[in-house]
Amino acid sequence: MKKGTCAMKKLLVVGLLVVAGVWVCGNTKFGRKVSAAVRDSVCWVRSQVSDCDGANAQRAVPKTAAEREREIKEIRKQITKLENNFVKLLDPIAERQAEVNRLDREVKTARANHKQMRDDLLALTQKVEAGVQPISIDETPYTLDEAKAKLHSDFSLFKDADASLKSREQLLSAQKENLRLARQQLTKIREQQRQFEVRLVQLETTEEHLKLQQIATPLRLDQGDVAAIKNRLDALQHGQDIEKERRVLQGQFLPRPGRPAAVPGAPAVSPQEIRNFLSAPAATGAPKVVSTR
């Protein structure tokens, strides 16, 4: 697990260094801007790799819930810092993109001018070779010697323009490649950051499950305490069972308060006789009189 984390951090270092390196090689002014923007990111990632190679490799594994919670908070801070450093890289890339767009427009204009100069030079060359006088150039008459002098001057200017165009095209090609590499590295860094975030969320979810399991099964309790609590609960329940049985027996064998005790040889009671005396209707399904003799 540690080796994999270190490898990922080293990948970030390589990506950031490639971005900074290709920019600095392309343009000194832009390189100063980039170095100011990426300094924090490179230093931070380098510090993480240094930790992997050194002290961090010996860091104790967080075992308790409190230690793991603190570690999650620290990792969250590191991911947030990585996000802030990533945002700082966007402005230099946007500036370089604008410069590339401007250079691309200049190259297109230079190519159009180059083509026009070539066509004009070729036409003048043909007129000089023909030797016909006067030679009309842009509706202006030239002698043959004047045309030859102009041809020599235009050819010199064309060679300079041709060399300048090739140089600009090479610079444009190099800067486009640098931008492509920079965007590619930014994409990799963003993907790596998102992987860190997803993994941290998964670990946070696992930690919540562990907390719930700890509540459901308190494994950290002393077994002697558990046994003592269980015995006291069992004793309490046993006392309640005894009380229930005592009350059942009292209801069966002891007279209730205010209730006359049964007298042996007492005369039978006729409920119907009482109802007749009270002029009360007989109850539906009234039970038959039972003699107590």
Could you explain how this protein is built, in words?
This protein is 78% helix and 2% strand. The protein has helices spanning 2-26, 28-53, 65-88, 90-130, 144-216, 223-253, 271-278, and strands spanning 135-137, 140-142. The protein has a two-stranded antiparallel ribbon with strand order 1-2. The longest helix has 73 residues, at 144-216. The chain is rod-shaped, with a radius of gyration of 50 Å. Residues 1-5, 16-20, 40-57 and 289-293 have low confidence and may be disordered.
Overall geometric form? rod-shaped
The whole-number mean of residue pLDDT values reads 76
Tell me the radius of gyration. Answer: 50 Å
The biggest sheet amounts to:
2 strands, antiparallel
Quickly list its features:
293 residues; mainly alpha; two-stranded antiparallel ribbon; 7 helices; 2 strands; rod-shaped; disordered N terminus
